Amino acid sequence: MLSDCERAVLIGHAARMLPRAHAPYSRFPVGAAVLAGDDRVFFGCNVENASLGLSLCAERAALAAAVAGGARGVRAVVIVTATPEPATPCGACRQWIAELGSPQTEVICATTCGQQRRHTLAGLLPEAFRL
Q1: 106 classed as catalytic
Q2: What are all long-range contacts of 11-14, with beta carbons under 8 Å and residues at least 24 apart?
Q3: Which of 6, 48, 59, 106 is catalytic?
């Protein structure tokens, strides 16, 4: 479980990704930060495509950056939106977190207004698919 300070720092990192999002279709920018098992932090933002199925969520962008950076294991995933209520990861992102994290991986959903909800991956994706 993250400390309040760690959580606040990660939320700040994810919020700084919002202006970098490429969301011309949904106009729903999302920023993300991933805390790897070795305590390195990786960042991502959503990148939309005219062929909407090819769009990339912020969480998956940050997770891909962690893998590309050589990180193994995910302690926490933070997503930030500029909405009144926090948004949770989509099903595809939950499965990516399951692949790279554990049932105890902390998933923090926050807003630029200061709202936040904390989950474990097991709470968001019970009985996740695993090979």
Answers
A1: no
A2: 11/78, 11/80, 11/108, 11/110, 11/116, 13/41, 13/43, 13/78, 14/43, 14/58, 14/78, 14/79, 14/80, 14/110
A3: 59
